[in-house]
Amino acid sequence: MVSTQRGRGRQLTGGVAASSGDWLLVVHADARLPAAALGAAQAAMARPDVQAAAWPLAIDGTGGWLRVVECGAALRWRLTGLAYGDQGLLVRRSLYDAVGGYPETRIMEDVVLIRRIARLARVERLPTPILADARRWRREGRLRGTLRNAALITMFLAGVAPDRLARWYRPEPGPR
Prior knowledge:
Number of strands: 7
Structural class: alpha/beta
Radius of gyration: 16 Å
Distance between the termini: 15 Å
Helix content: 40-55%
Shape: globular
Order of helices and strands: HEEHEEHEHHEEHHH
Mean pLDDT: 89
CATH superfamily: Spore Coat Polysaccharide Biosynthesis Protein SpsA, Chain A
Number of helices: 8
Largest sheet: 4 strands, mixed
CATH class: Alpha Beta
């Protein structure tokens, strides 16, 4: 177990620092990688041209709104190149180190890292989705959580500092 100060960026940095190997696989605690998704990761790691990869988002739950969120995530990735942390990240350690790793911010650490990576390498789209737990969407409300996230990323891309945005993001209770 790795212990760090609060803040997802710090926690991810601590986890990476405690790891070893040529590749890093970062998956949120509420996500699962089905066997086929792990197989896709292994295939990607065997290709010398792949430096970084992420999975399509699938939300493990029922309901049309969750499918809309999945389609929105796929469209965002295609249009902007932004894969969020919910989609997992597979990255060569050398590339991770070259871009300075995760920033020690409370939110948007995944967006900052993916943008840094994209300046140096293509983020491969893996064919099999990762499964994110649906409880966050159920707890926050479908529309409220989605609109809040859209507003946060818009403000971040407009230049608002992540730590300032963090006060509008209320993650589940528990260690942060």
